[in-house]
């Protein structure tokens, strides 16, 4: 293997994880009332009737009978206009049906009537986020945390705040403008990358999710339809074919029921994009079979998440600021129908119609991409360590790179990208030790590299390291071991 060959190839593959949809659901509230003249019989009757109507509304909301629940909350407010909890839950029914401005008014009124009502601040933040008012959402969420730092949803809200604050930082200095009817500037604010037209149709491998709790067979059909929608929406500039061979796939999709595997505890899925100098090398899409809020994953929810994550996997790495676009950063609270709109279609067409020189002139800024997730999550800590290792490799600080990747490997031992990069780092160290005639150290690094690379999808890299190892074994008079490695090499070459 030529000197640094593996280094130059593998460490151009910067691992980036893209922003994902936030799962936001209305809260159920205990019935309370703030003001009525309870010194009179009429006042007490109104109070009790308002509480009764409110509680009936909560039960109806739980049964997803939103229209009747909404009327119950309205009736409660007619009796007691200062009923903060009723304003809050009435706002939730409005938000659930897409009446966001009206919902904002109700949530604001609830916080005015009862500033200590933490859930009202949470719902206000959710609604602000849904309409794209990110700074206002952050302010409302922080108010919730100041009131109820150990609340039921405090952890998720902290994660959401981290995501939104990073989103603000990422977009504040963007110099790229959008087209008249697209959001290419927003979608490529961190730089440009895309799949090479020579790779079309892209091979898509969908892992069997039958063993994943809460997986349903219809998830596969929904996912395949989402791919078809993007292909049609791109006017055929992006095409797909489904394959049963994971190793040869360009895009690998799988499911998990563990929200901790997401970039943040508020996510419904995420896409990992691995680019190199020629464009996107591989994309990995992971989808949740459970809604982080505890609700069942509906077909509409799954479809919206699938469309969003595939958009990332195709190179739309940023988020639109328009809530009507599929690449908006959060889900609407209601379980609403969704489809690619004209702006979505125009954006993917614009990306794949760009002159190659324009794409090459705007390389990905990994430091900005790393701001897209919750920095405290295991996934983002792993991403950060991987990026730091990549930078160390560029600076020829191989020991630091290995240490960073070993730390990442401890965080996520099953991560294929980390395993591949750690295997490549070990292989680079093995080659350097081999060239310096430090054969014991070279043997140690080869022994660490090969098991990791064998499990990976880059068989060419694995084959190259095997050949180097075989050369060292023959040079050190270990013929029998070299013969065994030689047989493995021939077996691999016969498959290609």
Would you kindly provide a written description of the structure presented here, covering whatever features stand out?
With 496 residues, this protein is of the alpha/beta class. It has 3 domains: 16-21 and 179-365, 3-Layer(aba) Sandwich (Collagenase (Catalytic Domain)); 41-152, Tetratricopeptide repeat domain (Serine Threonine Protein Phosphatase 5, Tetratricopeptide repeat); 377-495, Alpha Horseshoe (Serine Threonine Protein Phosphatase 5, Tetratricopeptide repeat). Helix 6 (118-130) runs antiparallel to helix 7 (134-147), helix 10 crosses helix 11 (299-313) and helix 15 (378-394) runs antiparallel to helix 16. The protein has 20 helices and 6 strands. The longest helix has 22 residues, at 41-62. Helix 10 links the parallel strand 2 (202-206) and strand 3.
Could you write a compact summary of the structure shown?
The protein is α/β, with parallel strands linked by helices and 496 residues long. It has 20 helices and six strands.
Overall pLDDT metric = 83
Which runs of at least 5 residues are low in confidence (pLDDT < 50)?
1-34
CATH H level, superfamily name of the largest domain = Collagenase (Catalytic Domain)
| Overall shape | elongated
- In CATH terms, what is the fold-level topology of the largest domain? Collagenase (Catalytic Domain)
| Protein structure class | alpha/beta
Annotation, overall tally of beta strands? 6
Share of helical residues: 40-55%
Number of helices: 20
**Spatial strand arrangement across the major sheet:** 1-5-6-4-2-3
**Span of the ends, CA to CA:** 19 Å
What is the total domain count? 3
CATH class call of the largest domain: Alpha Beta
Q: Write the element-wise H/E pattern from the N-terminal end onward.
A: HEHHHHHHHHEHEEEEHHHHHHHHHH
Rounded to the nearest angstrom, the radius of gyration is 27 Å
Largest sheet: 6 strands, mixed
CATH architectural category of the largest domain: 3-Layer(aba) Sandwich
Proportion of residues in extended strands: 5-15%
């Amino acid at each position: 293997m030529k000197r640094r060959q593996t280094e130059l190839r593998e460490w151009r593959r910067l691992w980036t994880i893209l922003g994902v949809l936030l799962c936001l659901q209305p809260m159920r509230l205990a019935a309370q009332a703030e003001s009525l003249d309870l010194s009179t019989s009429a006042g007490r009757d109104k109070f009790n009737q308002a509480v009764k109507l409110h509680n009936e509304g909560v039960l109806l909301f739980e049964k997803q009978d939103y229209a009747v629940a909404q009327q119950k909350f309205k009736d409660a407010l007619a009796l007691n206009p200062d009923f903060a909890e009723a304003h809050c839950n009435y706002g939730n029914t409005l938000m659930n049906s897409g009446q966001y401005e009206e919902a904002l008014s109700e949530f604001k009124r609830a916080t005015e009537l009862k500033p200590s009502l933490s859930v009202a601040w949470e719902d206000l933040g959710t609604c602000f986020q849904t309409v794209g008012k990110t700074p206002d959402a952050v302010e409302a969420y922080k108010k919730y945390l100041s009131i109820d730092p150990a609340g039921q949803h405090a952890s998720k809200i902290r994660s959401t705040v981290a995501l939104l604050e990073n989103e603000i930082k990422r977009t504040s200095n963007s110099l790229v403008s959008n087209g008249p009817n697209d959001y290419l500037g927003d979608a490529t604010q961190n730089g440009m990358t895309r799949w090479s037209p020579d790779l079309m149709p892209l091979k898509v491998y969908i892992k069997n999710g039958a063993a994943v709790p809460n997986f349903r067979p219809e998830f596969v059909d929904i996912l395949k339809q989402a791919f078809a929608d993007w292909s049609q929406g791109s006017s055929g500039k992006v095409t797909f074919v489904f394959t049963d061979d994971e190793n040869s796939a360009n895009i690998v999709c799988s499911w998990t029921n563990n929200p901790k595997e997401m970039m943040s505890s508020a996510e419904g899925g995420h896409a990992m994009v691995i680019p190199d100098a020629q464009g996107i090398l591989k994309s990995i899409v992971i989808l949740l079979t459970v809604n982080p809020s505890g609700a069942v994953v509906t077909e509409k929810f799954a479809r919206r998440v699938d469309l969003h994550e595939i958009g990332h996997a195709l190179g739309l790495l940023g988020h639109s600021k328009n809530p009507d676009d599929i690449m908006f950063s959060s889900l609407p609270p209601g379980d609403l129908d969704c489809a690619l709109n004209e702006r979505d279609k125009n954006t993917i067409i614009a990306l794949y119609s760009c002159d190659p020189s324009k794409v090459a002139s705007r390389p990905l800024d990994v430091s900005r991409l790393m701001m897209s997730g919750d920095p405290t999550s295991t996934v983002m800590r792993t991403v950060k360590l991987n990026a730091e290792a990549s930078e160390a490799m560029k600076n020829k600080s191989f020991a630091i790179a290995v240490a960073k990747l070993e730390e990442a490997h401890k965080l996520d031992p099953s991560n294929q990208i980390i395993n591949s990069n750690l295997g490549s780092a070990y292989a680079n160290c093995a080659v350097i030790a081999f060239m310096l005639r430090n054969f014991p150290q070279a043997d140690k690094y080869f022994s660490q590299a090969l098991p990791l690379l064998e499990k990976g999808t880059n068989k060419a890299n694995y084959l190259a390291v095997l050949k180097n190892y075989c050369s060292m074994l023959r040079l050190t008079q270990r013929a029998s071991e070299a013969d065994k490695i030689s047989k493995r090499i021939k077996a691999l070459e016969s498959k290609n």
